[in-house]
Prior knowledge:
Blueprint: H1 3-38, H2 46-52, H3 56-65, H4 92-100, H5 105-116, H6 120-131, H7 133-143, H8 151-155, H9 158-166
Amino acid sequence: MDNNNKSTNYMEQKSCKNTDTTKQNERENTIMLDKKVINNVKTLSFDDIMNFWPSNRTVFREIKDNLFDIVPMIGAGLSQNITKDGVSFPTWERLLRQYAEQMGAKERAIIEWELDAGNYENAAERLADIVGERALLTYIRQEFSTDKIDIEKLKTSTIAEVVKLFSKRPEPLRKSHGR
């Protein structure tokens, strides 16, 4: 075997070991997170989240560096841990299915077909067409009522951190029109 082949072979082995180490770290972090969830530890620390996946810190830095160019889109999952004991917010799918249960068989089948296909927006639009936008919005407001929120949980939640993060935006530049 010549020196070039030995060098290439060594580099391939080293690359495989690094990949194996990364995969092992990912497995360990996943197991750690799973244990916390299984043991009903609902609040994860910032470090838990950052260490969960190797790229999390990099992504966080990119978000932080480009904060003023980002519009946050927060999913329902973030609100699951801020409700009062014994109460929970439904997922969007569950919310739409619950409302569809009140429909006739034909309408319910149409909504369920959209949901089964993962078309939540289409399902919501179809519901709004059937019952009216105002009725659907009233139902959504009832299901996501602030009465269900535990204020103390909210203060220490990820949502509160996101609000803090995005409340630091500078005022938009205003043109003075010669005044």
